Amino acid sequence: MNTLSYGLLSLLSHAADSGYDLMLKIQPFWPAKHSQIYPLLAQLESGGYVQHKLVVQTDKPDKKIYSITDKGLNALRNWLTLPTDEPVTRDELVLKIFCMEQGDTADILHMLETRLAYYQDQLQWLQSKKETYAQLNPSPSLGIILLMQKGEFSVKADLEWTQWAMRQVIAHEKEPNPD
Amino acid sequence: MNTLSYGLLSLLSHAADSGYDLMLKIQPFWPAKHSQIYPLLAQLESGGYVQHKLVVQTDKPDKKIYSITDKGLNALRNWLTLPTDEPVTRDELVLKIFCMEQGDTADILHMLETRLAYYQDQLQWLQSKKETYAQLNPSPSLGIILLMQKGEFSVKADLEWTQWAMRQVIAHEKEPNPD
DNA sequence: TTTTTATACGTAAATTTTGACATATGACAG
DNA sequence: CTGTCATATGTCAAAATTTACGTATAAAAA
């Protein structure tokens, strides 16, 4: 039982879902491809943590709807009492910033612009999620509210940094020698 | 040539360094164990991107000091012009928050307290780094300044969220039924 | 009408990352 | 004087993750 397995159980503790949709929904929290999700769900099922029923669809391919079992819920509750790993972030951009003096200012600015657009998309996505969730759900889950807020705090800080960094890079280019 | 390889070249573009110290220095940007660093440095050397000389020490074990070659610098400069991967963050805490309703409030609060201490340590480390760097270096590298600021923006946002989340959890516990 | 996109599942190979095992020196604490 | 810690390098196995290969349906776009 690795962290991704618990992540899947965590999603399933809210509602039963297909492997395909679990894969889509877990992306913001723990990026994983379907080639990792499907075998893991089979493994969880063989361990008795989840079970599935086949749902036949006419407009789309048939799917397997997984639901969490009592054993799965117990495993989840126990996991919540265990020490929590520190977060891990890997960002190619920071490695490039570290040696930015080696490259052209235009390339660095282009990289920062692309990243800015990425963060803006993220923020828009978050805010639309927030709206639709508030509309659909009368008594929202505290956990989901906390997570949406975490995302917003984080992306806004990244967004501000990117804009600040772009200004710094431009200022540095215009005034390379202050004497 | 994967991202970690470029990360090592990026560090080496500032100064020659040992595998051990490169391993320590790259942690904040791209976590990696020495078992990953040493073979990669050997691979980079066989590719002609870096070279090393043995430095004999009396008080400590001997070490290999790696330096970047012209070929390495060219590879680094080319890398700066290529598209940049999106950042990847994996945080067990957010998966736990998602199903926090399944556990005890005390366990969740304990998790958040531990995380709070972690972020406070990070912030302290960053600010001490900032000071020592400013003192040691008369003309600081723009890249390093940008990165230290990025870290500070990010950790401060995480810190604020954690404190906010703890207040939310406490409020939610005290007033579970508003009617 | 052909191609692309989204849905939906699956496996196999390659890459990346972690954890364990291994050795060695000097300092420092118990 | 014995164990632990920081330094320093290395290999090997296992686990986690990504990329590629593979099938299939239906809608939408080109």
TrEMBL record, chains A, B:
Pfam family, one: Vir_act_alpha_C
Residue intervals of the Transcription regulator PadR N-terminal domain: 8-77
Occurrences of domain Transcription regulator PadR C-terminal (ranges): 89-167
InterPro entries (UniProt xref): Tscrpt_reg_PadR_C (IPR018309), Tscrpt_reg_PadR_N (IPR005149), WH-like_DNA-bd_sf (IPR036388), WH_DNA-bd_sf (IPR036390)
SUPFAM superfamilies per record: Winged helix' DNA-binding domain
Protein name: PadR family transcriptional regulator
Higher taxonomy: Bacteria, Bacillati, Bacillota, Bacilli, Bacillales
